[in-house]
Design a protein that fits this description.
Chain lengths: 288, 316
């Protein structure tokens, strides 16, 4: 556990009282960590148990780990195609949103035009409107024009829902790019689009990575839009899929848990591999 | 630098020199900004603008299929006279009780992390995990953990707390409290993330000075750290109120087995709207309930902006 390289407060570690306090702090953090991990640990250990073992032993570690449940999930249920659907939506929606947001945030941050403040205020207010409010008219419209259960229809909605936050974050970030860079580029004859592409976007890579993380999490994890707008079995997303899946295998807990392990694996693996970006993304995304 | 044109020839004030220069270079550049924001306007108009206009229209109509006749306030009368609607409102309000617990837990953990006890970075990675996992996944796992014959009750019995071993999921008196535990568990991670971000921007010298003056841990937290965190705590509280009233669908959908069950014990306003739209195909009713929810969220936008401004000012 001793990986902290950060400077610690110098006054620590002196008297006995301080040591007792330190132990208490560790105690609290250990408890918090246990609670934070408990569902993940339960999910992992149960997925490896046989049905027989789970029936008599719910808490212990798997005595004879079995992989049958994982095989059953992957072969007998459409988990992989659900994941594929979710991935298509993430790529589509995050892609559309990033392009739209970069263009708009550049104009809002770096150009003077009428209605600029109004647009930014409007955009920011939309961050607080609950998605459920937009659903009724969009559902009726989509039913009429045949966009229910289409990727493009869902991508459009997701892109719209994540864009206000993206514009907000990018505008703030673009404003921190030094003005002199723009001026000298203008004098060199670079157009706005070239400046955006060659100067602003490369300089904003950290903010863009943050956005991709936050927005991908949102789209990947969403259930509401997915179950309303993608009702066709072939278009079902992972989150909509597992809420059906869990009902079907209500009594087969180890099998269900194997499904949940597979469903949470992509984000957990990404989180562990790119902690730095996730933590930064989560911290920025929290402002939402 | 190049010589700039005399700004006095331009009547409007407040233009930056850069812009003045650009305007003289290229007359069409006046329209360029609009070209850049056009895709945003189109997207927001479609996903927010159109629905927000139509939702009001629908709420006054008896919509069958895609449209229908005007019926005045009948939809609102129907919604407001339905006990299920009021029950769902009450459930959303009950969820607000989770917020104080979330704030206390998040404060405690974030302050301990901020003190950089050995291994704090590992602890940080772990306590953020609930926010990375998707709500439906967590809800499915927790539902199994809280089953009557599940591991949670097994631990409680083992601890001799048999009276605590409730039918967490299957009893209509308890189910919403179980949803609340789940919400506290996950949303506290957001609080920790937010508070830690704020704490890391604090001026450490003040805290260090207090320590050298002999201030105890509680005194430092109470008199020095907490006052500086007022803004971010208020912000988190407002965001959480918005969440409890309008963004708990995924929790109740899974825990309530897609029916808001057992009985109607976990039906919230979002689920009421979902039911009216999808299950009973009454878009007019769903629209009226959506308008009511929208008005509540508009009322909350002002405290949200105030809190965000306060939080940003404190940070600056």
């Amino acid at each position: 556990m001793n990986v902290a390289r950060e400077p610690r407060f110098p006054a620590l570690g002196g008297s006995k009282a301080v040591k007792a306090g330190d132990a208490l702090k560790h105690g609290v953090l250990l408890l918090a960590s246990f609670l934070a991990l408990a569902p993940t640990l339960f999910m992992l250990s149960t997925a490896l148990k046989s049905d027989e073992q789970y029936a008599v032993d719910k808490l212990g570690l798997p005595t004879a780990p079995v992989l049958d449940h994982f095989r059953a999930v992957l072969l007998d249920s459409p988990f992989l195609s659900w994941m594929m659907n979710s991935l298509i939506l993430v790529v589509g929606a995050v892609g559309v949103s990033i392009i739209v947001s970069c263009l708009a945030a550049y104009a809002i941050a770096r150009m003077e035009f009428k209605g600029r403040q109004l647009l930014l205020a409007l955009n920011t207010s939309l961050m607080a409107v609950p998605p459920i409010v937009m659903i009724v008219p969009l559902f009726v419209l989509y039913s009429r024009i045949g966009l229910i259960s289409t990727y493009q229809g869902a991508i459009l909605i997701y892109a719209g829902l994540i864009t206000p936050f993206s514009v907000y974050l990018l505008t703030t970030f673009f404003r921190t790019v030094p003005k002199e860079l723009f001026e000298s580029a203008h004098i060199d004859g670079a157009g706005d689009f070239r400046i955006l592409l060659k100067i602003v976007i490369p300089l904003s890579a950290p903010a863009l990575v943050t956005l991709v993380v936050v927005n991908s999490l949102y789209v990947w994890n969403d259930l509401l839009i997915a179950i309303i707008f993608l009702q066709d079995d072939a278009k079902r997303t992972l989150m909509a899929g597992i809420s059906v899946f869990q009902g079907r295998y209500n009594n087969q807990v180890p099998l269900t848990m194997a499904g949940m392990v597979i469903a949470s694996a992509p984000m957990l693996i990404l989180y562990i591999s790119f902690q730095k970006y996730f933590i930064r993304g989560l911290m920025a995304g929290a402002v939402k | 630098m190049q010589a700039r044109p005399d700004p006095s020839i331009f009547p409007r004030r407040g233009f930056t020199a850069r812009f003045v220069q650009r305007r003289t270079m290229n007359a069409s550049s006046r329209f360029t900004p609009y070209l850049y924001v056009l895709p945003l306007l189109a997207l927001l108009a479609f996903v927010f603008g159109y629905p927000l206009v139509r939702i009001f229209e629908f709420s006054f109509k008896m919509v069958r299929g895609v449209d229908g006749p005007w019926i005045g306030l009948r939809n609102y009368e129907l919604v407001l006279s339905q006990s299920l609607f009021w029950e769902s409102v009450l459930h959303n309000l009950q969820l607000l009780l989770a917020i104080p617990a979330m704030i206390v837990i998040s404060l405690l953990v974030s302050i301990l992390l901020y003190e950089r006890v050995a291994g704090w970075k590992v602890y940080r990675v772990i306590v953020f995990v609930p926010f990375v996992l998707a709500i439906p996944i967590i809800a499915v796992v927790m539902k199994r953990m809280f089953q009557f014959s599940g591991p949670v009750n097994e631990v409680l019995r083992w601890l001799g707390l048999d009276f605590m071993a409730l039918d967490w999921i299957g009893s209509s008196d308890v189910a919403l409290w179980t949803v609340m535990i789940l919400i506290i568990w996950r949303e506290s991670a957001l609080g920790i993330i937010l508070f830690l971000a704020r704490l890391l921007s604090l001026d450490e010298s003040l805290i260090e000075a207090a320590r050298l003056e002999g201030a105890s841990w509680w005194q430092r937290v109470w008199y020095i750290i907490l006052p500086q965190m007022r803004g971010v705590i208020e912000f988190y509280a407002v965001v959480s109120v918005i969440t409890m009233l309008s963004a708990v669908f995924a929790y109740v959908y899974v825990v309530g087995g897609g029916r808001g069950g057992p009985g109607t014990s976990t039906v919230v306003v979002e689920f009421y709207i979902f039911n009216a739209l999808i299950r009973t195909s009454l878009p007019g009713i769903a629209a009226a309930a959506s308008v009511l929810l929208f008005l509540v969220s508009v009322a909350l936008i002002f405290p949200l902006f105030r809190a965000r401004r306060l939080a940003n000012e404190q940070e600056a």
